[in-house]
Design goal:
This protein is of the alpha/beta class. Helices cover about 30% and strands about 20% of the residues. It has an 8-stranded mixed sheet, with helices on one face. A 3-stranded antiparallel sheet has the order 2-1-5. α2 packs across α3. The longest helix is centred in the last third of the chain and has 18 residues. The chain is globular. The two termini are about 25 Å apart.
Length: about 240
């Protein structure tokens, strides 16, 4: 199967160059590719156009159902790789949706991108494809907390989280909307022996005002727990927009 991507406009795949806005590579120039499709349905997801298509009744705070034809496009791996190469970057971030649902096709694409450092942003519920894993420089794993609205047994798969905790290429990013969410994140860190030096807390929000308000109480909590704080640089620079 070829790759299924999100779009910036009907028929235009969401492949672009920007500065990484979050996590361990924040501020770095990167190429990005956003895939379509997700096995989770976060109430606050800021890329719901990658999964909440017409007929999908999973809840989302915006209540929008996106037309699949305008918001999804299929590319073969060679075409996607050529578009990525044309951006002239030495680092690629693969995001979604949930990228690891398309692991075999991603492995074929990544094999055509020799010399690029590849990052994958994942919700942590799926295992890396064995042909893809050796081609990945690092994973940013973002386990979803209860406030995401997902069933806990689906979003916080214990076996998978423990496996990610043992993966030296994995960094962790917990999205936090309220102070109590930090306690839930810490409980997962401790239960699965996730190395604290590779854990970020990040405020949920799609506007600078909301992010700044939440970071004011999140920063001291991160400090007290010995965890890193991740901002969302792209929101401050471009707002909540596609292709940024």
């Amino acid at each position: 199967m070829p790759l299924t991507l999100a779009t910036t406009a009907p028929g235009e795949p969401e492949i672009f160059a920007s500065l990484q806005g979050e996590g361990p590579s924040a501020g770095r120039p990167c190429a990005f590719v956003r895939l379509s499709g997700c096995n989770l349905a976060c109430l606050w997801c800021d890329t719901a156009y990658t999964w909440r298509f017409d007929g999908d009744n999973r809840p989302h705070r915006d209540g929008i159902a996106w037309p699949r034809k305008a918001n999804q496009v299929v590319l073969d791996e060679a075409d996607a790789a050529a578009r990525i190469r044309a951006l002239g970057q030495d680092r690629l971030v693969i995001t979604g949706g949930e990228p690891l649902l398309q692991g075999a096709a991603l492995a074929r694409m990544a094999a055509l991108l020799e010399g690029m450092a590849i990052e994958i942003e994942t919700n942590g519920t799926a295992a890396p494809h064995p042909a893809l894993d050796p081609l990945v420089a690092h994973y940013t794993v973002s386990p979803k907390l209860k406030h995401s609205g997902n069933p806990v047994d689906l979003a916080q798969n214990s076996e998978r989280l423990s496996a990610w905790a043992r993966e030296p290429k994995a960094w962790f990013k917990f999205v936090v909307a309220a102070p109590d969410d930090v306690g839930e994140a810490i409980a997962l860190v401790e239960a699965h022996a996730i190395p604290r030096e590779r854990v970020f807390l990040m405020a949920e929000g799609v506007s600078s005002d909301v992010l700044r308000a939440r970071e004011r109480w999140l920063a001291p909590l991160a400090l007290a727990q010995g965890l890193r704080l991740s901002d969302r640089l792209h929101i401050h620079l471009y707002g909540d927009t596609r292709g940024t």
